[in-house]
Amino acid sequence: MLDHAARIALIPGDGAGPEVMAEAVPLLDWARARGRRLEVERLPYGADHYLATGETLPEAAYAALRDGCDAILFGAVGDPRVPDGRHAEEILLRLRQGLELMVNFRPCRPLPGLQREGLWLEVYRENTEGAYCLQGSTEPGRAVDLAVHTEPAVRRLLEAAFARARARSCPLTLAHKANVLKHGHGLWVRVFQELCAAHPGVTARGMHADALLCALVQDPSPFGVIAADNYLGDLISDLTAAFAGGMGTAPSLSWAPHRPFRCAVLAEPVHGSAPDIAGKGLANPVGMILSTALLFRHLGWESEALAVEAAVAAAMASGARTRDLGGSLSTSDMGTAIRGHLPG
Length: 344
Ligand code: NAD
Ligand code: IPM
Ligand code: MN
Fold this sequence. Notes:
The protein is α/β, with parallel strands linked by helices. It is built from 11 helices and 12 strands. The strands form 2 sheets. Strands 2-1-3-12-11-4-5-10-8-9 form a 10-stranded mixed sheet, sandwiched between helices. A two-stranded antiparallel sheet has the order 6-7.
C-alpha cells in the first residue's frame, strides 16, 4: 500500500481506447469517494497527437511518467493512418520496456452466463523482450527479426508464475519451442527446470507451444497458469480471451517485480484499438473495467477490486451485454449497468 496519494496517468490512446477508458474513469472517482487517495492525470499520446505534432511519447513526458507517477491506465493504440505502427511502438512498447514491466498477467475467467463458466486460466507473459526487442533489418530479399532473451527477465517472469501456481495450488505449464529455438527457449527451459527443483510443491511441466495450443482448444480445463515468452504469450492470451467471451472481456496488468522506478505498473485491456468498431459505441468496456480492478488490487485496494469484479459479474448475470456478446447495450450503457451494481 502506498504512503501517499496514488498518482495514476491515463493514456486513452486510439480508436476504441478512449471509449472504454471513459467507462473506467468513473471507477477512479468512485474509489476516491470511498476514501482511496488518488490523483489522475490524462495524457494525450496516441495517433491524433502524433499526426498533429509529430510527437509519440516525448522523452520528458516518459521521464515524468517514470518518476512522477505510480501507475498507468492505458486504453489501446493503433491507427490505420499510421500503418507502420510507429507511435504504438514508441508509446506502449517504450513504456513496457523502459519501465521494465516484464510480468504481464492476463487472466481468463469466463463471466456469468458465458460458455465455460468456472474455467480459470492465467497467462504470465514476459513483456519486455524476446521477439519484441525491435532489433532486425530488411534488405532486398532478406529480412531479419532478432529475439533476445535475458536471464533476469525470464527468471522474474517465471518466479511470478511459480508463486501464482503455488498460491492457487494449480498446475503451471511453460509454453516453449526449445526443440527449434535452441538458444532463446533453451534458456527458458533451463531456468524453468531450476525453478521446478526449487518448488517441488508445484506441478509444473514444459510443453511445446504447438502441442499446447491443440490441447487448450480441445480442453482448457486441466490448465491453470501458463507461462510464455513475449511472442507466444501474445498469441496464447488472445486464445484464452476467446475462451472467456472474446477480446472485449480480457483484462491485463503488467508490473516490474523489482520496482526499478516509481511507476511500476500498467493496466490495459488485452484488446487493441478495434478500428472496425471504433467510434460507434460498440466496444465492450469489460476488459478495461476488469483491468482497472486488477490495478486496484495491485495498489492494495482489495475491497474496491473485489467490488468492481462483483459488479461486472452481477451485470452479466442480469443479462447486460454489448453486441460482441450477443446483446445490444452500447459501451456507455454497459459501463452504467456495471456501475449500478457497485456499493456506495
Ligand atoms: P483488436 O484487438 O483491436 O481487434 C480484434 C477484434 O476484436 C476486432 O474484430 C475488434 O472489433 C474486436 N474487439 C477488440 N476490442 C473489442 C472490444 N472492447 N469490444 C468488442 N470487440 C472488440 O486487434 P487488431 O484488429 O488486430 O488490431 C487493431 C489495432 O490495435 C492495430 O493497430 C494493433 O496493432 C492494435 N493493438 C493494440 C493493442 C494495445 O494497445 N494493447 C493490442 C492489440 C492490438
Ligand atoms: C497486446 C498487443 C500488442 C502486443 C501490440 C499492440 C504491440 O497485441 O498488447 O497484446 O503485441 O503486445
Ligand atoms: Mn496482442
